[in-house]
Each structure stands twice: as structure tokens, then as C-alpha cells.
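Milestone M4 deliverable, item 7.
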Amino acid sequence: MIGLGIRRQSMAIDNTQAELYYIIRYGQRPGRIQTWINGMVEFTYTLGAHVLKRYAFPDTMKLVMEEYYDKNSHSDGLRTSETV
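Output delivered:
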């Protein structure tokens, strides 16, 4: 158990590295970066009422999922998610 914790810490990246990755890959700056407890990084980009969330793991920075929705909508039916 201790070995897994150490390994996870060594794979962790800070928000500056995550932001740089996002700018290089998508050509824009994310509005918000959040790191989850499992090590996944959530990038949120908001344009008006539209929200685009992208999820990636820092060890490979491979995109895991994208989620797009209208933040004014109170229905999850308008959310579009795609697992890559």
C-alpha cells in the first residue's frame, strides 16, 4: 500500500504543467484545472452558457473523456459525454 502511494505522488503533476499540456494540445487556456484524488485531471472550459470538460490522467495525459453541456439547463438529458 505504501508503494502505491509513493508511485502515485511521483506521477502527480502541478497545475502549471497540466495547463501547459492543455494549451499545447487544444490551443486554448482552460478556465479551471482540478486534480482528483485518484490522480485524474479535470480541465473545464466555459464559453458563455456552454461548458466543456475534459478528463485526463497525468502519467500519460491521454484524454479519458469529454463532457459538454449547457450550464443553464437543469436537465442531465442535454449533457453529451464521450469516452475516448
